[in-house]
Design brief:
Length: 66
């Protein structure tokens, strides 16, 4: 993950395998409380990480049939 913001705390997300929303709330609670654009991006990231493995399996099964 790369960021242009000076947020060293975000390095705590590197290599995380689950519990993303909870970890984000621990690392940058001020962003969550403020409802900042960054917190909205993190919320989308958490949702995407949940759905991505399913989408990958669907696309791989489609390729196998071609």
């Amino acid at each position: 993950m790369a960021t242009e913001l000076d947020r060293p705390a975000l390095q705590g997300l590197v290599g995380l395998h689950g519990g993303l929303r909870a970890r984000i709330a621990e690392l940058v609670p001020e962003e969550i409380e403020a409802g900042s654009v960054l917190s909205l991006m993190f919320d989308d990231l958490a949702g995407t990480s949940l759905i991505a493995p399913f989408v990958l399996t669907r696309s791989l099964s489609t390729v196998a049939w071609e």
